[in-house]
Specification:
alpha+beta; five-stranded mixed β-sheet; five-stranded antiparallel β-sheet; 3 helices
Amino acid sequence: MRITRVLSTALLMAGLAASPAAADSSPSASASASSDDSSAPTQAGTSFRTATELDQGQQATASGSTGDYLYWSFAADAGQRPTVKATVKLPDTHAGETWQLDVYDGLRRRQACQYGAATRTAAQGTGSLDLACTLRTVRAWSEQWANDPLPGTYYVRLTVVDLQSADLGQPVSTELRVDSKDIGGSAAVDGSLAEPLTPGIAVKSSSEEDSSSSTSAALSSIEPDGGWSSGWWSDRWVWTGIGGVLAALAGIGGYALTRGSGRPRRVPPAM
């Protein structure tokens, strides 16, 4: 009975210790606790260098013309699995056209969608079109030859890839949102980056003291809520500790079951 009580207590403690780790499977704070909608972007860039910075959880909007390239950028940290969703509102009258949503990392490497319809065709007269792309989980470290998502800035490009020339230039409006799910220790790797892969490049206006109205390239200021968290810690350490405790208890229990009740009273001690 005492062994049963000890094992029951150990399992209860293991469950309590695992509860914080299980919370990693829920959407991240940056995805659910969205930023103030009043500060959400209302326009999109036209190239990588002019991509509009977007925080995760914000609902960005932009107006443009059919045939434009629309760009946004956002930050993703290790352990996150970003999902990009876009809605294109089309004019009342149009022929069939195909829209595509592409996601690139800071090195301009196109990232494959784990799932989601990143390319869709709108039939003639369709009022709106929904696109989605869920990336692979961002890793804290990767081999140089690999194309794994790494912490840093990511770029979203939305454009039409197939349409008739008569529809070129028609007005459209778009909505875009990026959310992430924290995968937790199941995506942890043996290694980390001291700094994000790249903070991205953005075009900033000149200072007020400068009379010219030119722009210059500068490092992007976007980063995940709480900063970049790549490091040695992950909830895999919690599960490793729980496994060690359970193994020790199993060894103690096995010894208690096999050692017997000791020397019988009628047997005299050995001289």
